[in-house]
Design brief:
This protein is α+β, with helices and mostly antiparallel strands and 510 residues long. Among the domains are: 184 residues, Neutral Protease, domain 2 (Orthogonal Bundle), CATH 1.10.390; 132 residues, Immunoglobulin-like (Sandwich), CATH 2.60.40.1730. The chain has 12 helices and 24 strands. The strands form 6 sheets. Strands 4-7-2-1-13-16-15 form a 7-stranded mixed β-sheet. Strand 21 and strand 22 form a beta hairpin. Helix 4 packs across helix 5, helix 9 crosses helix 10 and helix 10 packs across helix 11. The longest helix is centred in the last third of the chain and has 23 residues. The radius of gyration is 23 Å and the shape is globular. The N terminus is likely disordered.
Length: 510
Amino acid sequence: MKTGIKRNSKKIVVIMLSVAMLVVFAGFNMDDNAYAADTTGTVKVDNYNMAVQLNTEKNVLNESITVRLVNNTGNDLDRVCFRNFAASIIKQKGTSEESSTVNSIIDAGTGSKLEVKAGDDTSVVYALLGSNTFKNGDTMTLKLDCTTSVPKVNDRFGYHQNKYGKLYNLSFCFPTLSMYKNGKWNENPYFDDGESRSASCTDYHVTFKAPSDYTVAATGVESSDGNGTTEINASSIRDFAIVAGNYLKKETATSDGVTINSYYFSYNKNKNYEKLAIGSAIDSVKMFDRYFGKYPYSELDVTQASFGYNTGGMEYPGLVMIGGDDFVSAKGNPYYEETALTVAHEVGHEWFFATVGNDEYKEAWLDEGFASYCESLIYGTSGCKSQMKALKLDKVNTTVKNVRKGKAAYGYMKELNKAHAGKYYINKPVSKYSDSYSYSEHVYAGGELFIYDLKTAMGAGDFHKAVKEYYQDYYLKEATTKDFLNVITKYDNSKKVKNVINRFIDKKYL
């Protein structure tokens, strides 16, 4: 979820949309291998070894990144592509003095400095290999030196400053290898209202240096020496993020054997956020483990973030950021259940994006639709302890029994089905939606509705078996809409299911 997209605001607008006439579609062609997965080779990242220093006086990151690559493409390559999303973010939101630059890329095998060339999007960086072609089956180690300004913005990448100190959200600011598929490098442009990520899982070892009074949370397992150096180790992850600040406190709990660390602002009256955030994370991990399969990591960090006065969040493997300004300012007006639901949504991404990966630019519904389903139709109808606490704080007079009946959530699904009764394609690339609102409505609300309608058509039993199999089949791998439909139609290939698929999935983009 991108910061600021609010679940309840979607509901209000959807109700106002005109209701289209319901049509019955021709059956989706479900021949054998209709959704055969693409098996084109790629460039594998064995590991990233990073040394990162945060200069809090100049608000600058100095990064040294060593990456070991294996060419499994079936082709000899004359260049390697990296994505440096920080450059695009700064171009959109930073000042003219700020920048993110890959200063040099060195071939560690030969010691030669490679020519660095920019792509069409600011975030695309090519290392030109010259005569030293990267042959199929070979390995190559490259060393990148980078300097990145951290802009003063309340966002997933940026820093926030107040009288208590500074908080840095450091994501999309560590250059990573682009995905190579179908004979070309992924150059999908940076998309600020969503994500453009597409990556396979690999290992990270990061040495991060910051002032000694800074608390550090990160993807993976952190170990600080007390003098400002934090060693971070993360296995089988597809993205990496760090949160560092000098006004954070930490609370730790466990859920289904997972260590949950909640990092929260240490000032003002912040108790309700603290208890809601960690409670919602505990309940979500237990539920999603049961519904889909085990969470893949030993830790989950939940960090309070300054995203402005609204509820929003952002997800990374093993770390989620949750907007929390409403809790610590006189201007804030917390909607407690919204915060609990946001935590559930972002934690849901640990299963769909972090574990089962996808191309978030081309098929964002695969993770956002499932995360919205986790939020509304699993957590939101659970009546769990954290949800009931949130409703009590919101002064909503209800019972666990009534919440579990899901009147609000299922009513929302009925409203969506009325509003989007015709074809409502959710599997289009970002560039094929008219604007950010249309993207959000299709990918979040439409994705959730598609999953709900599949469950209704299939019956809960077969649906849950299919989704568990999908999760297991693509555990720490990448999936496409084709892959998902292959599993679904294995369990139910009926006309009813075909009609649901035909309504939401545009064959042109499979």
